[in-house]
Amino acid sequence: MSELKRLYNLKTLFILLALVIINTGLFMMSCDTDKQITLTGNDLQTYIDEYPDFLKQTKNNSILMSSMNMYKSGYASDNIRKTAESYEKLENITLKADDNRGIVVFSDYELTDIFLLAFLMIMAARLISERRKGLVNMIRSTKDGRAKLYSYRIIILFISAVIGGILLYGGNLLGSSIIYGTSDLSRGIQSIPEFMLCPFKISISEYILLSCFLKVAACFAAALVFYLVISIFGTAAAYVITGLAAVAEFLLYTLIIPVSSINGLKFINIIAVLRCSEIFKVCQNINIFGTAVSAINCDAVFLAILLLINISVGFYIHGKMYVQSRNLFSGIEEKIKKILEKFAIQRSLLGWELYKTLIKQGGVIFIIAAFALTYSASIKYRYIYIVNEYEEYFYNVYEGELNDEKFDDMTKEKDNLERTIERCNRRIEQLMQSEYDNRDIIARLDSELQRAIGKLNGLMPVYENAKDGMEYMQRTGRQIDLIKPYSYDLLLQRDRTTRNRASLYILMGIIGAVSGIFAFDKQNNMTFTLRSSYRGRCFLNISKIITVFGISVILCTALHMIQLVQIGNLLGFNNLSSPLQSLMFMRDRELHVSIREYLFLLFAVRSISAFGVGVICMIISRVCPDTVSAMGVSVFILAVPAVFSELVNGAGFINAVYLISGEMMM
Predict the structure, then answer these.
(1) Who contacts 357 (Cβ-Cβ below 8 Å, separation ≥6)?
(2) What DSSP state is assigned to residue 187?
(3) Residue 87: how many CB atoms within 10 A of its CB?
(4) Residues paired with residue 292 on neighbouring β-strands, in sequence order
(5) 592 contacts 478 by C-beta, under 8 angstroms
(6) Taking a C-beta distance cutoff of 8 angstroms, is the pair 35, 381 a contact?
(7) Which pLDDT tens digit goes with each residue over 383-428?
(8) Is 529 in contact with 570 (CB distance < 8 Å)?
(9) pLDDT tens-digit profile of 231-265?
(10) 8 A C-beta contact, residue 290 and residue 74
């Protein structure tokens, strides 16, 4: 119990709470209603109706492939047979159409796995905090300092995995229900088009439970491996070894094709288990000595064996022998230092601050992670932006400088269409009351009527835009243009989710990169040395400010530029030299600039706001004793309220996301 109280102190609870809030907020920002996530409406119903035909076709394909000579023996033959058997079990399954968007986002969202794994690795590192205090031998030589203590720590790590999994994955389910509403989870998993090839006869709720169980077990196993390595080799070597192992696992999973003869290396690893949704989305059989074995069964056995080996080896190391901390790379490190000394350059004060912030503190890792997460989230689903073809046609006809003559032409066009609609309706009514067979004439008039209605519906948004623009010009005396607003509407109005999600990643990147700008000096007892050195005060602070400014501005500009480029590739940005008030939703702005100048100002305001957030992190770093404390305080002062205010309107005393996204300019 004392070990549990030591580990689950206020700091640990704060870390877990921050991870849960940030994870839930980021997940809800991924629930983007402006993008096509999965099939809906008639498309979904068509998929449901045609699913039995798919099963029949799959069965016929397996029979055809089995008849080929090249598939009559070995793994290929066994794989075809077991795949066919798996899909035969689904013939009597009943599918039902419902809103699947929340489940699809839940299955695709991988950041939660990283959060859970990070939390467990933090807990694993804290399990041996006595090493930092020099108390390893003392604790291990006591009566309860060996196997019993190790058993307690394994149990605590397991409890941490379960609690973290429930809170993190439960938060995702809660977030999806808030955004998309609840759906029937008792339906077969094949009711979701993305799981059309799932070979298991399970419901959606069973899929959620199984996938969460596998993810939690995989994170627990990975944390145990990390705990074992850090116990033997020390902290620095543990991070290097586990990092290289993670890269190797990822490469094996990515590069090996599913039907390869060595596909066991692809699926029997931690990355594959963390991405277990892929195992459920298609029938995956692993080649085990020429026999096809279900990937999910192999993963379950793999996790059980990995846990058993880790616990056993850990019990032997901690319970039966004394382990001294080993610096695995001491000799290599010394040689590298000697080589680098020959090519060493004298860094300027600014150069040293950049090197310290980006390399020594790992700031470049946070910057790269923020960019990668923003980019991957932005391209995950395609935008949905339906444009009325007649509306686009009329914009092309009347686009350009707005004047009385052009508005009069639009008014005449509107009146003509209204008269056409009235004439067709009156004539159709007369013909329907006639005693003669006028079906052909009625059909022709109805076609003309529908075409006129479509044109009028397309013209009215253009006409309303022009009418409002004419009123604006009469009121202000300023000239504006009539332009297509589609890309600007998506960028500045509709796609708030992508903008705020990128702003939150920018915020997290800034916090991670600059939180140690002052705290790093403190934790290394260099504060007074630097302040007492020549030019050690004013120029040191200026160098730190320049460093924070550069990181904040570059990160903010790069991440927000992703959305700008993506929308530009989709719709294009037309008439950039037109006045800003040419956009109907910008006519109440007092800023009289072109659209191009406005976009430059928008990015400038975002960059200045990001720099302001970086300055706040600097101030927090100034009063904190170490980098970790500065990062934690910054998260609770800036990130948590920002995420919370995104989830609950009006909540939070500060919303850094609002500032970084440039909402004040929109």
Answers:
(1) 363, 513, 514, 516, 517, 520, 547, 551
(2) S
(3) 20
(4) 287
(5) yes
(6) yes
(7) 777 788 999 999 999 999 999 999 999 999 999 999 999 998 888 8
(8) no
(9) 777 766 777 788 788 888 888 888 887 767 677 77
(10) yes
Instruction: Identify the CA nearest to 608 among candidates 659, 571, 651.
Output: 659
The Cα–Cα gap between 663 and 496 comes to 9
Return the ∠ at Cα 149 (arms to 145 and 151), rounded to 5°: 145
Query: Three-class SS of residue 577?
Result: coil
By CB atoms closer than 10 A (0-12, 13-18, 19+), residue 315 is: middle
- Cα separation of 12 and 6, whole Å? 10
> 547 — alpha (psi -120 to 50), left (phi > 0) or beta?
alpha
3-state class (DSSP) for residue 288: strand
Model pLDDT, residue 652: 43
* Amino acid, res. 111: L
Distance CA 633, CA 627 (A): 10
93 vs 204: CA distance, rounded Å: 13
Residues 622 and 518: their CA atoms lie apart, in Å, by 5
Burial of 408 (0-12, 13-18, 19+ CB in 10 A): exposed
Structure token digits, residue 469: 């623009």
How far apart are the C-alpha atoms of 527 and 521, rounded to whole Å? 5
Distance from the Cα of residue 486 to its chain's centroid: 25
User: How do 291-294 and 382-383 pair as beta strands?
Assistant: unpaired
Percentages helix, strand, coil for the chain, rounded to the nearest 5? Answer: 75, 5, 25
Ordered alpha helix ranges (H), 524-582: 527-532, 538-571
Give the pLDDT confidence score for residue 629 in this predicted structure: 81
**Structure token pair of residue 274:** 């963390």
CA distance 628 to 240: 20
Query: What number of other Cβ atoms are within 10 A of residue 201's Cβ?
Result: 15
Neighbours of 592 (CB within 10 A): 12
> HSE-up of 416 (CA within 13 Å, CB side)?
9
Q: Nearest Cα to 564, choosing from 610, 498, 656, 658?
A: 498
Using only the alpha carbons of the chain, give its radius of gyration. Answer: 31
Residue 419 near residue 147 (C-beta atoms within 8 A): no
Distance of alpha carbon 85 from alpha carbon 95, whole angstroms: 19
> Rounded to 10 degrees, what is the CA torsion of 106, 108, 111, 116?
60
| Long-range residue pairs from 463-468, CB within 8 A, at least 24 positions apart, any chain | 463/410, 463/411, 463/414, 465/584, 466/398, 466/402, 466/406, 466/407, 466/410, 467/407, 468/584, 468/587
518, HSE (Cβ side, Cα atoms, 13 Å): 20
Q: Which amino acid is at 545?
A: I
Average predicted confidence (pLDDT) for the chain: 82
